[in-house]
Write a structure and sequence with these properties.
The complex is a heterodimer of chains A (406) and B (316). Chain A is mainly α. Chain A has two domains: 35 residues, no CATH class; 299 residues, ABC transporter involved in vitamin B12 uptake, BtuC, CATH 1.10.3470. Chain A is built from 18 helices and no strands. The longest helix of chain A has 27 residues. Chain A is globular and about 60 Å long. Chain B has a domain of 220 residues. Chain B starts with a helix and ends in a 15-residue tail after the last helix. The chains are: A mainly alpha (406), B mainly alpha (316). The interface between A and B is large, with 59 and 63 residues.
Chain lengths: 406, 316
Amino acid sequence: MTEPTASGPREAEPLAEAAPAVPTQPRAGTTAVQSPPVVPAAVVRRATVRGWMARQPWPVRAGLILVFVVLAYLLPYAGDIPVIGPQIVTQGIDWPSALFDMSYYVLLALGLNVVVGFAGLLDLGYVGFFAVGAYTVALLTSPDSVFNTKFVWLAAVPVAIVVALLSGLILGWPTLRLRGDYLAIVTLGFAEIIRITADSTPNFLRGDRGFGGLPHPPGNKSDGTPIFGVRDATPYFWLGLSVIILVILAVRNLDRSRVGRSWLAIREDEEAAEIMGVRTIKFKLWAFAIGAAVGGFGGVMFAGEQGFMNSSTFQLQFSILILSGVVMGGSGNIAGAILGGALISYIPDRLRGISDPLTHTDLFQWRFVFFGIAIMLIMILRPQGIIPSRRRAMELKDRAKEAAPQ
Amino acid sequence: MNFSGLFHSFGPLTITGLAQGAIIALFALGYTLVYGVLRLINFAHSEVFMVGTFAALYTWGFFGLDQNSPTPSLGAVIGYMLIGLAAAIVVSGITALLVEFVAYRPLRRRNAPPLAFLITAIGASLAISSTVGVFTHQNIKGVPPLIRPATVVHLGNWAITNLQILIIGLALVLMFALDRFINYTRLGRGIRAVAQNPDSAALMGVNKGRVISLVFLIGGLMAGIAAVMYVLKIGDTKFDSGFNLGIEAFTAAVLGGIGNLRGALLGGLLLGVVENYVAGLFGTQWHTVGAFVILIAILMFRPTGLLGESLGRARA
């Protein structure tokens, strides 16, 4: 065991740290001669890219964001770029469909980021809300449904989002007293209850047989063919991207408001937040409800594109995949959640249709092996995620010791 | 709802529930020990168990046994059992140590936030289970019937089979031994010390790194034994068999109070029995739902589980 050599200096650290019991910031401010504020190396490096962006005048910033958004909308044509294009696009699955898959993964990652990243509530059953959204659409619109209401897709959207939001409140209410891992297992149980209910009610949620004939979003092209057809997934990707942009705006503003600051306080120290007058119960419920509504929206999009859905979509592994995307990208950071959500969908899809040179089988069957190793490596190399939340990194710096016992 | 069914088969449901619960309890030990020391959910523990089932399966396969071979004589059964157990224990133990070394140690060195550990563990779990999945073509693999279930004890209409006695007895003995080990040996004292306060324990001369490895190893050994009991009881295994039972084991650990050894035993047995009653009452597909509903109900009134948290603090 290499432990003795490695543990020597590491275990001496608590002694050195124990002497200045006061937080780092005031100490650096009052006696600046002794020690400048300690900023983690990773933060300094990140600040050069994001700091540059922040220093530009607002028209430049707006222009850059606009260019970025336009590029995102042009992604379905990425395959036409010479040389690099064919490397980017997926092979075993058509590229617009892969992009649409990425869009609802990103949407789910954004929603889960509110719960896990902002409010610090570990949710292992997020797919439950996705399922609630999708099943509400299916029950309202499908000809297979027991209600037989046959709504159009657009009419089912607000209902599904409200139902998902309510389900978030229903789950949030009894679990408010629970902390950390207890909350994790209860949310996991919630998702499993929904999946098992779907599996075992053959006439209501129809288990494996699922719902067919789900309507697509409305609209016709000038020649009378529907915009949202079955052949080409590009319009669905654009729709998904537009929804993502709306959600980003909403979530970003929430994070910068009083609500977001309350979440931050709850995440860092719930007792202290409560003593300081933050109404923790209210804001935890808020986080659950908003996360659930976004997840439900993801389910609505999914149902609208697929036209068919059954209980096999809502496996627990799906929740865990989304969670690993959020944390991998950088928990508590919107850009990180987007990147992580896109990666967890892109990596497996990209591996599809590539032949393994050794055994001449599809690399797709190895996708989760690669994926598992990839997320391990990313977390070991960048424990705060690929794009760490800057605010969070600063806060965590002086609490890293107690957060993770060595 | 089938109350008369539950009433008539109350005895068999209880006994099979206890046997299932004993396996869950052994499995849950891995979660509870690691949580007690590191305050982290070891998500990869389910794969430690799964690897154990395959180790036993392939070891018996090496001796020419497959799912269709006849049950051997008593002496041979004991021999095969010991060999299978040894293989499962070794492979599970090594896997658990590997998981700690690859997924946990590098992050501990970097003072990573707790969520990062969860994600590397998920990564390790995905990588292990899908590797086994690829090599077994995701098929269900049958296990040689080493022990034919035969009723050996009758208590009224409670028929108890030899396999159930073996599983429950073994689990109780192991739990007792582990409890003694944690509470009355030098190494056990080290584990409790690290569970209470890692930094102080290190200052008192406890080698933290070694204690953490030891905890993973013990969890792995217990999972290996649980794996052999599981394949004997169920008769087959699959690359994702760890995941589903792992959720039940984790639920059991939380139910009893995570980080608490006796809690794991109580939680496991209770969970196994309750699941069986729910299955008898509403139908088999609902048995996990029953477990989760009970869990939520108990956590609402006792937010830290039935026996409370903590490896170190409970009997310091």
